[in-house]
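Q: What residues go here?
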């Protein structure tokens, strides 16, 4: 039997790991984001800075979003 391992004592059979992977993909396909608390998000700006030094690349990504909560929400989106 083939086992997947990450170097620790916890070994998973390959079929178990494959089943978990397919399960994650399936939940992403069937998930309805509209049921996640009724918040709308909109990306306003995305800025990417990249600096190369030899074989090393330093990349910094800044994403600015606006989040609008429903009127029913008591908590503030901070």
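A:
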């Amino acid at each position: 039997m083939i086992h997947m391992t990450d170097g620790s004592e916890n070994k998973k059979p390959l079929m178990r790991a494959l089943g978990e992977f397919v399960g994650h993909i399936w939940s992403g396909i069937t998930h309805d984001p509209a049921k996640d608390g009724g918040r709308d998000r909109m990306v306003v700006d995305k800025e990417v800075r990249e600096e190369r030094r030899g074989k090393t690349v330093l990349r910094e990504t800044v994403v600015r979003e606006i989040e609008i909560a429903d009127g029913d929400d008591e908590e503030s989106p901070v």
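A: Context that may help when evaluating the design: The first strand starts at residue 3 and ends at 4. Residues 12 and 18 are 10 Å apart (CA to CA).
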